[in-house]
Amino acid sequence: MSTFKHPVGPQPSKVYWRRRLLVGLGILAVIVVIVLIVVRPGSSSGTPAGTTHTPASRTTPAADTTTIPTDPTSASGSPCKAANVKVEPITDAPNYAADQMPKLSVSITNTGSNACKLNAGTSQQVFTITSGTEVYWKSTDCQSDKVDAEVLLQPGKTISSQTPISWDRTRSDPATCQSPRDPVPAGGASYHLATSVGGIESADTKQFILN
Known about the structure:
By secondary structure, this protein is of the alpha+beta class. It has two domains: 1-48; 72-210, Immunoglobulin-like, CATH 2.60.40.2360. The protein is 15% helix and 27% strand. It has two helices and twelve strands, in the order H-H-E-E-E-E-E-E-E-E-E-E-E-E. The protein has helices at residues 13-39, 72-75, and strands at 85-91, 95-96, 103-110, 116-119, 125-131, 134-138, 150-153, 158-160, 165-166, 189-197, 200-201, 206-210. The strands form three sheets. Strands 2, 5, 6, 10, 11 and 12 form a six-stranded mixed sheet that branches. Strands 1, 3, 8 and 9 form a four-stranded antiparallel sheet that branches. Strands 4-7 form a two-stranded antiparallel sheet. Strand 5 (125-131) and strand 6 form a beta hairpin. The protein is rod-shaped.
């Protein structure tokens, strides 16, 4: 007969079973303590005891910039070639009533196959209004607050000036910048606007009528 299942001794068998239970619980407690020392619960990184975990350094990604084609010349920001830039004069209307002031602006298109850089600021913009062979007004005659603005022109893309110039329908002359100027002829007179940016001139003019 097995003495494990049927304890033998002077005491009742339940006494021996109680002693075995206490011994078993003691052994289980020791095992639990050992496991806790090794595993170290509460450590989310799972790093063994006695070591220091140093987080990997994070590299901040470079700011997203305008995409430039992989062509070496465009990647280095080469200046635009005049042959690859189309400059066009723009007016906000083809005809103007007697109380309306023409709004003048310009568009620039990169007709080349690579991106290129161009100074398209007001310091590089010239607007010229003519009628027949006579020059009536030029934006640089009394210009102030000139600003440089280098822009990246993507191939096949067009940009336009954000703030049009309002022409007051008078003749310009550097000698009359601080004095009243004579109005130009109206009553159905035809005028032409030409523009240039960075020395690159518009191939065509924009015609408009002053009533």
